[in-house]
Amino acid sequence: MKHVIVRWQRGVPVYALPKITPFFVFLCGMGALSIALSAYREWAGLGPTTGMNDIYAWGIWKTFNTMVLTGLGSGGFSIGIAAWIFSRRDLHCVMRTAVLTSLVAYFSGLVALGVDVGRPWNFYQVLMPWRWNPHSPLLEVALCMPLYACVPLFLENTPPLIERWYYTWPRFRPFMMKHLVPIIRTTYPYVIALAYALPMMHQSSLGALMLLGGSRVHVLWQTPFLPLLYVWAAGFLGYAGVIGVLMVACISWKRPIDMCILGVLGRIMSWLVLSWNAFRFLDILARGQIGAAFALDRFSLLFWLETLLLIGPSVYLLWGDNRRIPSRLFQAAVLIAVGGMLYRFDPTTLAFTSRPGAVYFPSAIEVLIASGYVCLAMAAFVLIAKYLPILPAPTSAWYDMEHYARVVHPDWKMEIHDLSHHNRPNLAN
Amino acid sequence: MEVTRREALRSVVSKCVPVATAALVLPEARAAETTSQPKAPVGMLYDATLCIGCKACVVACAEANDLPRDVSLDGLHQAPEDLNAFTKNIIKLYKPHDQSPDSFVKQQCMHCIDPACVAACPFKALWKDDENGIVAWEPSRCIGCRYCEIACAYHVPKFEWDMINPKIVKCELCRPRLAKGYEPACTSVCPTHAVIFGPREDLLSQAKERIEQSPNKYFENRVYGEHEAGGTQVLYLSHVPFEDIGLPDVGAAPIPARLNWQKRIYKFLALPLLMYAMLASIMKKNWIDHRREMREEEERTGLRPQL
Q1: A416 contact B CB<8A
Q2: Is residue A274 located within the same domain as residue A408?
Q3: A233 and A259 co-located in one domain
Q4: Which domain holds residue A424?
């Protein structure tokens, strides 16, 4: 087996591939279907279209699309903290993938939340602070999550767009250099800091939501540390999500994979998972509820399923060279993602003990809408990755892309660099 | 080493601001944790030993609140199975399989002294009256998030699932009737006075009097709602275990007290702002390093650096 060591150095668009593929059409079709079904849901009400009821008043739109998938899409937050705050400079090359994943995940979660609320026309009150109940965790989520998605997360995603305009729109270049670049230069640290403060707030508030569920949330999950466990889980879920996105994207678009960087991500993720699990066990022990873990009812089995899905792959990744072998890293990341998502889902639904006889199972329409918005998020990611330099690649891939662009788009003026630079390969050959 | 005025100022500020914030926030935050009590709380006392299960209160409630009659059972009888979008008040029968005594039970909003639904509601659509302590719902503020249904330990707020303009349906202790000087509909029609209306203080002392007069008649010789979840304005007496007639063991602490740490952390947004300031100061330093590295990278490769 031949090993080629690849280093990811810059974002390079997935160029020279058709934008409209059967898969992309499928994603858009699912998205269109979910938009149509959402319109039907607004017209028909929640009862006829969903499986929700007065006991299980929250369905998968809130508990999965918002509470789980924004956790999985927290890479921009969790990898960003490592890259920017803890100065892991090697991780900067995956930041564009991470913040784009976060952006599409957050927007699809927020749209699902909008479909879920029963009286959306009263939502204008977010702009009227005197009507806020400042102690409601849901208010915190309702303010903080859209604010994060629309301001710092959106701004974090603008550099690739500006970069594309820089190359493809020469008339824009002077304006950009004169006005945009200085603004970005001075405000960027403050935007980035906001991009980490806000998720810490709303990802923990997502956990705080279930505090008011009181004894209806099973004792293995209900703890005063629920907010901390939720934001911590968002931390490792973000890593798992970005590892998955990077590997799927690179393999399906036949781009080189840098197992050194992915291995670093895998290692940080594993330690986050193990420390999270240790904290969770300590919390359960301190509350004296360890007996519930061995009750052998469906809750204890669920608890051990989560624990095994998280601890097993983490230990496996820290073992020897496992995290530098693509297939092993990918499988472990998927298992950790499933385990973490299960943890964030359980307090709201599977470990939400309620009246005997009460059941919730999502209806077909509910599942179609939920998956349709996920498909829209994926479609957006696929399209953006083809237009903008998002996915990381070796510098040689950038030169290839430049060469291609000079042939296909001679008007783009790609050759803006110092052509006589000593390190620059001669593209004429 | 010379310390410039700017550096000295910065070091003083960086040490004083967190201390000052903590000093400012913590006492204030603790003060916020005691909930304000209504001035003259009114409520109901339901005595399960007196209830004959005639359901006159169920019909009277539906009529007074203009609720459509729930005849979903057989299309003939107004016999709802549970509290629902058409039913703010219900009489249920607890009938054990063994020979132990059975009991009717009335269910409606408990009008908690410190209600979980009010703590949950993001836009104060559910609000507690300062005067009489009634927990009521304001349609122009509700966004239909149904967090109240998750938070209520008694499963009281119900949602109009089948409506295009859905409302939260729950007992409001007949507020419009009280304003006109009437009693709530359910207490006014009860033939055996199993449920009576009055100020909470009076009802509580009356309940204790009943317990005193016939000791060991009532379960554990206590009033449900005196201390449950910080106290409720609807009080219960029962000869069967409370848990059996759907009155859960919720502990003595108010449910919103579970959010005390959240309240402390978010008081005046001081700690989040402090955290933001900390992150921003680290970022400012790292940003300068990062830009220097980007410039070096550009010199080395001749490629425009990427952010």
Answers
A1: yes
A2: no
A3: yes
A4: 394-429
**Residues of A numbered 93-132 whose beta carbons fall under 8 angstroms of chain B's beta carbons: which are they?**
96, 116-120, 122-123, 125, 131-132
The ipTM of this complex is: 0.90
The domain spanning residue A182 has which CATH number? Answer: 1.20.1630.10
What CA–CA distance (Å, rounded) separates B66 from A293?
Answer: 48
Q: Nearest residue on chain A to B85, judged by CA atoms?
A: A54
Same domain? For A404 and A279 the reply is: no
Nearest to A45 among B143, B164, B276 (CB): B164
Q: Do A188 and B287 touch (CB under 8 A)?
A: yes
In terms of pLDDT, which residue wins out, B217 or B301?
Answer: B217
Q: Is some CB atom of chain B closer than 8 A to the CB atom of A421?
A: yes
Residue in A55, A160, A210 closest to B155 by CB:
A55
Residues A38 and A141 in one domain: yes
**Min distance A319 CA to chain B CA atoms (Å):** 33
Flag if A47 and B162 touch (Cβ within 8 Å): yes
Residues A38 and A126 in one domain: yes
pLDDT tens, position by position, B99-144: 889 999 999 999 999 999 999 999 999 999 999 999 999 999 999 9
Distance from CA of A117 to the nearest CA of B (A): 5
B89 closest CA partner among B197, B14, B17, B163: B197
Q: Is the dihedral of CA B276, B278, B282, B284 positive or negative?
A: positive
Domain B42-261 CATH class label: alpha beta
Contacts A87 to B, Cβ<8 Å: 286, 289
Alpha carbon of B294: minimum distance to chain A alpha carbons (Å): 11
Q: Same domain, yes or no, for A327 and A410?
A: no
Closest CA to A336 of A344, A348, A347, A324: A344
Average pLDDT per consecutive 10 residues, chain A (429 residues; last block may be shorter): 76 93 97 97 93 93 96 96 94 96 96 94 93 94 95 95 88 87 92 96 95 92 96 97 97 94 96 97 96 93 97 96 94 97 95 83 96 97 96 92 86 62 53
From B112's Cα to the closest Cα of chain A, the distance in A is: 14
Share of chain B above pLDDT 70, in %: 89
What are the CB-based long-range contacts (under 8 Å, 24+) for A142-150? A142/B122, A144/A198, A144/A201, A144/A202, A144/A205, A145/A66, A145/A70, A145/A106, A145/A109, A145/A110, A145/A202, A146/A110, A147/A198, A148/A106, A148/A194, A148/A195, A148/A198, A148/A199, A148/A202, A149/A103, A149/A106, A149/A107, A149/A110
- Closest partner residue to A85 (CB to CB) among B147, B256, B282 is B282
Tens-place pLDDT, residues A210-248: 999 988 999 999 999 999 999 999 999 999 999 999 999
